[in-house]
Design brief:
4 helices; PH-domain like; four-stranded mixed sheet; alpha+beta; single chain; globular
Length: 152
Amino acid sequence: MSEPSEEVTGVIPAVARLTLGSERLNLYVTNRRIIVAHIGKRGAGAVVGTTFLGRLSGAFEDLLKSGRESRSRGRLDSSKPMDILRADKDNFPLLFEEVVRVDVDEGPGNVGISVLSRDEKFEFFTKMDIDGVLGLLSDGLGVKLRARRLGQ
């Protein structure tokens, strides 16, 4: 009996905080895994950014990046999982069977996603609502998925 083909079931736009700055990512959820796809980094200037010109420069950089992202995202959103992995050398998969636990925490302005795998821990943040995140992850992760909502 053959295994069903892998399909992207949804995308979670996310950010991972780095030592200096942050990295924008898409978490492509499939019926077998989560594919972490890199979009772009924001460096130390985004963290410091205290002057008006610094903020203006950061806003201009974001505007330029968002135009490039929307064009590249359009190609990737309709792609197959292997195409997403090949799109950038730093893209990588997190197989559901290798995930130990995923905690989804609703915050005042974002949702935190902590993924603990056999080898590493990953921290992501998204503006997507918690129900959308849980809906995408629940089928593949089942009891490995834990949620904490505001006020609980």
